Amino acid sequence: MIRKLKSGRWRVDVQPGGRGQKRIRKTFASKADAQRFERWALSQHQADDVVRQVRPEKRRLSELVTLWYDTHGRYLKDGERRYRHLLRIAENWGDPVASRIRARDYMTYRARRVEEGRTAKTCNNELGYLNAVFNELRRVGEIDFQNPLSSVRPLKVPEQEMGYLEHDEIRAIFQELNNSDNPHVYLVARISLETGARWSEAEGLTGDKVKRYRVTFTNTKSGRKRTVPISQELHQAITEHLREWGSFGTSTISAFRRAVKRSGVQLPRGQCAHILRHTFASHFMMNGGNILTLQRILGHASISMTMRYAHLSPDHLEDAVNLKPALEDELNQRYEC
Length: 337
Known about the structure:
The chain is mostly helical. It has three domains: 2-54, no CATH class; 61-139; 167-319, Orthogonal Bundle (hpI Integrase, Chain A), CATH 1.10.443. Helix content is 53%, strand content 7%. It has helices spanning 31-54, 61-71, 79-93, 103-115, 120-139, 167-178, 185-195, 199-203, 232-245, 252-263, 275-286, 291-298, 303-306, 314-322, 328-336, and strands at 2-4, 10-14, 24-28, 210-211, 214-217, 226-229. Strands 1-2-3 form a three-stranded antiparallel sheet, covered by helices on one side. It has a three-stranded antiparallel sheet with strand order 4-5-6, covered by helices on one side. Helix 2 crosses helix 5, helix 7 (185-195) packs across helix 10 (252-263) and helix 7 (185-195) runs parallel beside helix 11. The longest helix is centred in the N-terminal third of the chain and has 24 residues, at 31-54. The chain is elongated and about 95 Å long.
């Protein structure tokens, strides 16, 4: 902007980079001089932009990962854990120059990871983390190239067996838990079994989240708190334990794994931490529970997650018998012959 001052001189007042950028003010004896300076200031800024665009992008993947963490990742619930994982990915990949990465490069790296024994789910998680880095930095203007992995499809993950414990297996494991040297693990396991809570949710319960015959989980995967009813006996056990100890500690899952191993119960691979949650949900449905109620108890954001347990409903099992194709008459005639 150019305007005439009371002194008769002309002032240039410009912000070449727009709002928030450096502001330039300068006065001139004539309007023509002011106009020439304004054009020059704007052209210099545009030239700087061109230089920045022409300058080769040489930052390596680890540098972008750190930039992502500093500007965005640190505010995520699992940001620090994800940051460490991303740095390991960059190291394992040879820390390539990020702007030179191509989809084929990543697929070659992923194939090597699979050969090393990484599961499809692990590889898909890594792809998701990398996509999040590129997409976020692109969104805020920290990089000027497109996400090089946007066209890479996740690997197909075979549907995993959803394990749960039978009554005799529950008794065997809890007998071992009762003999554990960890003073918290038995009750944490009981909370998970009787409420369907994730292990971290049960372990993280505090006294202010335990009310009369209900508990409220706040540190949940979805970030949404939920309240689940509990029995009078469990309420008393939790209240007395927290009054004595103050918390459930932070290492109970290791004690639980050791108890499961001592019990001799065989679990599906990778499901030890969630087996009690799966057991609650499975028995809930087998005993005639409502799938929508189960969704609210488990805290699933989508009903599709809860539907994994729907096949255990007695209605489904009865339908398999009552609604199958009718062949009884033909079979009876065959046997009579």
